[in-house]
Amino acid sequence: MKLTTRDEEMLAGRHGEPLRKAMASLVTLGRAYGAEDMVDIGYAHIHAGMAMYKDDVQLMEDLADAGAKVAVPSSANIANADLVNWRQTGAPESLVRLQQRAAGAHDRMGSACAFTCTPYWAGHWPTWNTHMVSIESTVTIFCNSVLGARSNRDGFFSVYAAMTGRYPRFGYHLDEARQGTHLVRLEVMPQSVSDFSALGFHVGRSLSGGVAVFDGFAKRPTLDELDALGAALGTSGGISMFIVPGVTPPYATVEDAFPSGRPGSAIVADEAGIRATYDHFTEGDGSFDLVHIGCPHASFEEMKGYARMLDGKRVKASLELWVTTSRSVRNMAAEAGYVAILERAGARVISDTCPMSCHFARTASPDPALGVQPPTLRGMVLDSAKQAKYVRDMVRCPVLLTSTEKAIESAVTGLFLPRFSA
Ligand code: F3S
Fold first, then answer.
1. What's phi and psi for 54, nearest 5 deg?
2. What's residue 245's pLDDT?
3. Is this structure's pTM higher than 0.90?
4. Could you count the other beta carbons within 10 Å of the beta carbon of residue 67?
5. Which atom number of ligand 1 is nearest to the Cα of residue 231?
6. What is the 294 CA–ligand 1 centroid distance (Å)?
7. C-alpha of residue 205 to centroid of ligand 1, in Å
């Protein structure tokens, strides 16, 4: 692989051990994928250091102790606990204290303690053609498909790329990977953010990788709708990029997205497909203890919408309603008065984590000394197919997927309200 003089210096340890180790790992990654050279990156969304996985926070502290710094603007991904308002989640204090140590490591390394899966709502907004890295699939697909930045799904290599400012040129950093492979013909216009999530999950189930090109939206989807679509596509289909002509840079038309010609067949996305996702995530006897909205972490616009829907209402006393968002959006929503409206209604506004990421997960491997005991839940009402999939797999409780509006109504009435009436 072709390396610059500075890459070679880092590799030889001339800039210290952390950078030597980081560059050596990136070279190994690049060789494994046949990269010809490395690119300069302009942004990195990196590993948080996860308190629910033994020694994982220590990994980030070791880097910070060794003097590692990020070389480009960087944000930390979602964590395993709300670091500030953690008591409302029932997290054990020992877990929270460990998670807070990760924040200290990020402070020392110079990465923003965003602790979110939607750093773009918190101001990290890479532009067209910016090479970047991301540990979070939702960030990868949003940045590739909506912003036109260039990102793979990176795992811990994201930290090494942030430290060196470099990344091997392969995958979605190359033009040839950023062209349509599958055509999706829309025969329905999703009615809400949760419908976009259901649509994305449905389409993703027919795919395993590639770039889906959506043809036929009756109107331009909003940023929140595109965010939900991408998160779900990435969950069921392992997709890292989709194209909506007229939205995804630089594609103005379906023809632009398929330089070698339109495929002969198309995946049909109709109302039956959206219904199929809601059905797929309707389990159990309809009972539930918790309602969750805010996956991916809510934007300011979504927080405004939740406040409008909950204003003057009250969550049933026997239930919990969790609203998850980033700490930055939470602060903006608090200043605008939305957090007060939500809390007056009995909702819990939670940052830095989400149900599947927090101490609820039964598939994590925390240090036994932390005393983490995942709660037993009868069921969870959700408005996101991504969260539904991971709650089912990791929290292991029955899930009930519906629209945001009906999830909120379910929290108020105590009765599960499905998206479609029978
Ligand atoms: Fe984010 Fe958790 Fe959903 S990480 S995308 S809120 S499953």
1. -55, 135
2. 98
3. yes
4. 12
5. 5
6. 8
7. 19
Residue 92 C-alpha to ligand 1 middle, in angstroms?
Answer: 21
Residue whose pair of structure tokens reads 């309809």 in the numeric block:
286
How far is 189 from 198, CA to CA, in rounded Å? 12
> CB–CB of 214/182 below 8 Å?
no
Average pLDDT, the chain: 97
Confidence of residue 264 (pLDDT cuts 50, 70, 90): very high
CB atoms within 10 A of CB 313: 16
Q: In angstroms, rounded to a whole number, what is the distance separating the alpha carbons of residues 258 and 214?
A: 12
Distance separating alpha carbons of residues 163 and 165, to the nearest angstrom: 6
In the numeric block, which tokens belong to residue 140? 């990868």
CB of residue 207 inside a 6 A radius of ligand 1: no
The alpha carbon of 354 and the centre of ligand 1 are apart by a number of angstroms equal to 6
Give the residue whose CA is nearest to atom 5 of ligand 1: 296
Q: Which domains does the chain have, with CATH numbers?
A: 5-175 (3.30.499), 179-279 (3.40.1060), 281-413 (3.30.499.10)
Q: Is the CB of 111 under 6 A from ligand 1?
A: no
DSSP state letters, 209-264: SSEEEEE--SSPPPHHHHHHHHHHHHHHH---EEE-TTTSTT--SHHHH-TT---S
Q: Is 15 exposed, middle or buried (0-12, 13-18, 19+ CB in 10 A)?
A: middle
pLDDT score of 421 more than 90: no
For 290-306, the pLDDT digits (tens) are 999 999 999 999 999 99
For ligand 1, atom 4: residue with the closest CA: 117
